Amino acid sequence: MKKVAIIGGGITGLTAAFYIQKHVMETKEEFQVTLFESDERLGGKIRTERREGFVIERGPDSFLKRKVEVLELVEALHLSEGLISNQTGTSYILKDDTLHMIPEGSVMGVPTRIKPLLDTGLLTIDGKARALNDLFIPPLPDFDDMSVGEFFERRLGQEVVDHIISPLLSGIYAGDIYQLSLKMALPHFIEVERRAGSLMLGLQNQAPRKKTSQFATLSTGLETIVDALIAAFLPEVVDVRVGEKVHKVHRNEADYTIESDGGSWAFDQIIFAVPHQVTEALLSEADFLQRKTQAPSTSVATIAMAFPEKAVRMHKEGTGFVVSRREPKTITAATWTYLKWGHAAPEGKALIRCYVGKAGDDRIIEKSDDELVSIALKDMQGTVDILSDPDFALVSRWPEAMPQYPVGHKKWLHEIRQRLAKEYPGVYLAGASYDGIGIPDCIRQGMQAAKDVLNTLAT
Fold first, then answer.
1. Are residues 111 and 171 in the same domain?
2. pLDDT greater than 90 at residue 87
3. SS3 of 414, please?
4. Single residue among 190, 206, 222 that ends a domain in this structure
5. pTM of the complete model
6. Which of 167, 174, 197, 194 is nearest to 183 (CA)?
7. Residues 417 and 279 occupy one common structural domain
8. What is the overall mean pLDDT for the chain?
9. What pairing do the DSSP bridges indicate for beta strands 298-308 and 63-64?
10. pLDDT computed for residue 5 by the predictor
11. Phi, psi dihedral angles at 263 (to 5 degrees)
């Protein structure tokens, strides 16, 4: 009997367990998977609240359709009929208390068309001139990695970074883009700049010609995926230990020992699907896992507010906005969820979701629910008229939830995985701390971890 431990019951760990079980069902090999989750619930940051006809995501609300791993998992769980795409609408950037359209033809904030760049109110005349310099300045000298902020500032100028690129990335990473690794977050842009010598020229053929739906979710909420994974587990293959904390992992001559609340256990292989700081603590003997330059994970919160639809009057048609890096606001973004997702609110109701938390402002989530609702309502003034108090509000706090990828992250990850393969064979790292923080990225890593386990045990 081959014994595998998975530490962490978020979407990464659940996916790994599911695909190992799938292999067992297909091959009839003998495996025992034990999944440890210290929390009292599974699913990690995926959490759906269904209340009074509303479907409210307390964590992520959708996933990119072009990242196919999540669609493969949804199909394997027989959930494809519940897939729905977002309503395409205008998204804005809030600057100087005014909602500005993202310049038409932009790719992740990089302008590719001159007229929309010249017409935008997001940049000053000097800022527009500086952005156009991208067409003339030579490619940057060869580099292995640099920060996202430095790269785009050198190509397009400070204003484009502050007022376009940074707010667009804030919803993904919630960190300081002057610390965020370009090679990790946006590696494609390195290749474009080297090939074309200009981002604006190199991205012209990639600019969308018309608005198309890029995101999807499930009509019953994303937690449906978690529920389906749990329901799929066969107890004789996957032993799920919810509320059981792992305290230590030891390497033995031929296997590993895990000490948990429930006792001491021996395993042939282990998948760590937890934040890296947890892995560091559990595998304290592996001092090469200690990371001295790691930026602290960012804490964030979401504020979902339900209203009668007639009490909400938008100043501009669209689906929401992100906030300029220099704007004196506490919220980082707001989504008019009921307009973006038709299933999110019952008829005659409106659902608005605001976001707080960014690098250097983690303590905002310590404020009370009432304080955070007041902040959200105040910061939206001038973009939407709200004529009544919310019917109800739901605040979700996620302390240290957003891992940060510092410059050199990819090289660091490669090096520690090499060391693990040599010194801790059969130990694998997966999840948001390592190779992508979105739902599809975590699912992909869970799939890969399952493959790594199966490949190793087959040799």
1. yes
2. no
3. helix
4. 206
5. 0.94
6. 194
7. yes
8. 93
9. unpaired
10. 98
11. 140, -160
- The two three-digit tokens of residue 33, written as one number: 């998977």
- Note whether 443 and 60 are within 8 A (CB): no
The candidate with the shortest Cα–Cα distance to 62, out of 336, 341, 300, is 341
Mean pLDDT of 169-195: 91
Residues 403, 406, 412, 413, Cα dihedral to 10°: 30
C-alpha separations of 66 from 213, 214, 216, 397 in Å: 10, 7, 10, 29
Over the stretch 26-62, which tens digit does the pLDDT of each residue have? 998 888 999 999 999 999 999 999 999 999 999 999 9
Cβ proximity of 56 and 335 under 8 Å: no
Answer whether residue 459 shows pLDDT above 70. Answer: no
Distance CA(168)–CA(153), nearest Å, equals 15
Q: SS3 of 10, please?
A: coil
Say if CB 390 and CB 373 are below 8 A apart.
yes
**Taking residues 269-273, what's their average pLDDT?**
98
Distance CA 297, CA 362 (A): 9
| Close Cβ partners of 264 (under 8 Å, ≥ 6 residues apart) | 257, 258
- Under DSSP, the state recorded for 217 is E
* Over residues 194-214, mean pLDDT: 85
- Buried/exposed 327-341: b ≥16 CB within 10 Å, e otherwise: bebbbbbbbbbbbbb
Q: How many residues can be counted in the chain?
A: 459
What CATH number has the domain bearing residue 152? 1.10.3110.10
Which is it for strands 63-64 and 54-57: parallel, antiparallel or unpaired? unpaired
Pairing of strands 427-429, 331-335: unpaired
CA atoms of 459 and 450, how far apart (whole Å): 15
Q: Are residues 157 and 279 in the same domain?
A: no
Domain span at 304? 298-402
- 138 Cβ neighbours under 8 A, 6+ residues apart: 197
**Which string of b and e fits 98-132 if b means at least 16 CB within 10 Å?**
ebbbbbebbbbbbbbeeeebeebebbeeebbebbb
Residue given tokens 């904390």 in the structure block: 245
- Which tops the pLDDT comparison, 83 or 88? 83
Q: What is the CA radius of gyration of the chain?
A: 23
d(Cα 337, Cα 384) in Å, to the nearest integer?
13
- What is the spatial order of strands in the sheet that 298-308 belongs to? 98-101, 91-95, 320-323, 331-335, 349-356, 298-308, 392-402
At residue 366, what is the residue type?
Answer: E
